[in-house]
User: Fold these one by one.
Assistant:
Number 1:
Amino acid sequence: MEITDYERRFRSAGLPNLIEGYSATEDVFTRALPFLGLVFVVEMLGAVNLEWESMLANVAAVGGGLLLMLGAFAILNVIRGRPFASIPRKVGTPELVAFVVLPSALPLVFGGQWRSALVTLAGQLLLLGLVYLVIAYGVFSIVRWVGARFVTQLRASLTLMVRALPLLLFFALVTFFTNEYWQMFASTKGVRYGVAIGLFGLLGAAFLMVRIPSGVEDLERESHLEVPLHRAQRVNVGVVIFVSQALQVLFVTAAVGMFFVVFGTLLVSLPIQRDWINAVPVLYDVPLVGTRLGLTHELLRVAAGTAAFSGLYYAVAMVVDSNYRDEFVTGITDEMRETFALRGAYLRSLGGAVGSTPPAATGSSGR
């Protein structure tokens, strides 16, 4: 098998860091160049000043912003030894700095919009961070790999679901039919509601990540690797484990949420909702055999809140249940054994000693 075939298999398995010499500039941001270029062009609109009444002035500002950004990249091409009007084929630190700084400078140059400049700067840094995480750790490939094995992994957690769900549903049902519970979620809207739901998700993610380092160590030990994984590769394997568990939590969360939407629609009538929240609920009209069911905005918010709490509970149960951990690690080990076997053959084809090459090395054979 050719080196490029091995590396393609690693990317398909969601483990691109198994590629020796995998680097941010060569493998991550360069692969994202078309997307970054599109974003860079769209951000010419940062020169627009909404306080200007003249459309012509804004058009001129956009044109000026285009000239400024293209001129800056043309100068960068000359400094980097490329043709003046060429499109960069590789992304290094100078290109990344230009990607962050130039769009952030446009609001300052055209109208002195310093707040907009700071927001743009923060947005550019956040975007680069997301691009790095998604591509460097093969998030899309991981989701596809985990999705293809989702039923098998869910079956491994069946015992945990049987133990956790009855108690979870009991407490959820008790709280679901209380007016204080409905008043809390009905009165919390917008950003506050989103932040509250997000906190449930963050707490659940934190609980899942607590055990990931030990899970990676168990996986590495059970796989009997010829060459130990280095730090970036362990992180990549940890991302695979996290996404696998997170998808199971999301499945349980969505199932509980759907259950309470249907359950509440059938049993919590509009008069009951009106009495519990001391207001007229916003109704979605769902006629059924001449009856208007109680599917309302308030019901959806209560069901989503109940589902978020259920997801947090299930994530905690994953962490503390030793039987689940043993079954899950065993399942992941079986699934990854082929990939790790390919890594052994890949390292031997590179010369064996390449296994000690640090992840920041430049380039990889066959790319």
Number 2:
Amino acid sequence: MSGAFRGAGRVFDLSLGQLLWSRRTIFMALVLAVPVIIALVERLLTVGGITAMRVNDVRVGGATIFGLIIWLCLRVVVPILGVFYGTALIADEVDDKTITYLFTRPVRRAAVLLGKYLAYLVCTGLVVLPAIVIVYFLAVPFREVPGTFGALAIDVGLLALGLAAYGAVFALVGAVMPRPAVVGLVFAFGWEQAAMLMPGYLSRLTIAYYLQALVPHAIPSQEGVAALLQALIGEVPSPVTCVAALLITTTLALALGCRVVERREYVLEQ
């Protein structure tokens, strides 16, 4: 086991630089520029004395706008990043015909996936989390920072949980299926969206259900937005249940992905 972790560390060192300077990271930075621009526009309008957003003729505060941005990030940005990074951890090596070079290194095959997954977490964390902090200080007035800073810490934790869960699930998809990006997009923006709208327990088979249930802590109910999110979620599980479900999903998907990589013979197309 210790050998596997040492091997994962070597693969992590090799992969992190590649991910940080990849086209995917440039794409990720462009996607994350959108909420930053939204928060900047809201701050400029507020400074100019213009109310940026109202719900039922009530002004929506900066903390609520930040909560909505976090909600949109969890529902859209995090799944996109999970798909395009997670599915590529093994699939890109197969497509580039470099998987055999990794497997001939003196490390276990599972260490390859584990090291690349850890590099994915660090890479996305280094780009996503600072952007969210910038959005927070743009959207939330300085006088509200002392009372809402704890919510920021929770939101950062939610984003990290979402990136970990989606990345692990899509790493498994990339290790098992051909054209995994297509499968990942169908899962994230087809199956999950449909399951969230269906009655019964199907929504509990999605990652979005548990992430979304944790979001409304930052949205004041008197401004009318929390009621809308509550209607979309339905019965809300407890925070402990949500966190446990996300951690179990992450661990199980990553373990299955490592098992697949250990046992599967990857046939490279000529």
